[in-house]
Design a protein that fits this description.
By secondary structure, this protein is mostly helical. It folds into two domains: 2-68, Arc Repressor Mutant, subunit A (Orthogonal Bundle), CATH 1.10.10; 75-201. The protein contains nine helices and two strands, in the order αααββαααααα. It has helices at residues 2-10, 15-21, 26-39, 57-74, 77-102, 119-146, 153-165, 170-173, 180-195, and strands at residues 42-47, 50-55. A two-stranded antiparallel sheet has the order 1-2. A hairpin with a 2-residue loop joins strand 1 (42-47) and strand 2. It starts with a helix and ends in a 10-residue tail after the last helix. The model has no long low-confidence stretch (mean pLDDT 94).
């Protein structure tokens, strides 16, 4: 389940990132990905010069069945639902912060791209991101106490936020790395997937 779920959370990734997501054995994970391709659960494609695996509709359905069975066996439905309710307002604030990181309005152009030449603007966003990370701690602890695979979200986010505070700004929203945005979006998808909620049908926070 963890290998298939890692593909879902990452969206598009090579076997190294897939197996690293839950610290799984690379050889065993690669073999399972090959099996999943034969079952029609994953497919391989190339994008912008990079190759990776993604879920098919059948793979998403299979992962959904696995997650539902795990949730039922653990009796953790109320805990995850409560965590999702607590996460939603944080998610609204996070999306606002990322928007401010990417867009800095100027006279005549309210959607101007942030060129990161205003340190005060960027510092306020970075402070917001760090504060949101701190608020993930109790939520992450509650989730991981109910389902062990939720462990690590807050630590991964905090590690990215620390790198941002050191001036490594690609760790705000960089692709292919455990950036603040990447970790946050994985947690959001994990909550929705565990509860059987399709992201497209989830109400806006």
């Amino acid at each position: 389940m963890l290998v298939l779920h890692a593909v879902r959370l990452l969206g598009f990734a090579d076997e190294g990132r897939i197996t690293a997501r839950f610290q799984l054995d690379r050889g065993e994970g690669s073999e399972l990905v090959g099996d999943f391709e034969a079952f029609g659960w994953v497919f391989y494609s190339r994008f912008a010069g990079l190759g990776g695996w993604a879920l098919t509709d059948a793979g998403r359905a299979q992962n959904g069945r696995q997650l539902a069975a795990e949730l039922d066996a653990a009796g953790a439905g109320a805990v995850v639902a409560g965590a999702r309710a607590a996460f939603d307002p944080l998610n609204a604030r996070f999306l606002e912060a990322v928007t401010r990181w990417q867009v800095r309005p100027v006279p005549g152009d309210p959607l101007a791209a942030n060129d990161h030449t205003d340190p005060r603007w960027d510092d306020r966003v970075i402070d917001s991101l760090a504060g949101l990370g701190a608020q993930l701690a109790p939520l992450s602890a509650e989730l991981s106490g109910a389902l062990a695979r939720f462990d690590g979200y807050q630590a991964r986010y905090a590690a990215a936020a620390t790198r941002v505070q050191r001036g490594e700004i690609r760790w705000v929203d960089g692709l292919g790395i455990d950036s603040c945005h990447g970790v946050w979006m994985q947690l959001h998808e994990d909550l929705l997937a565990t509860l059987g909620v399709d992201r497209g049908s989830a109400p806006a926070p």
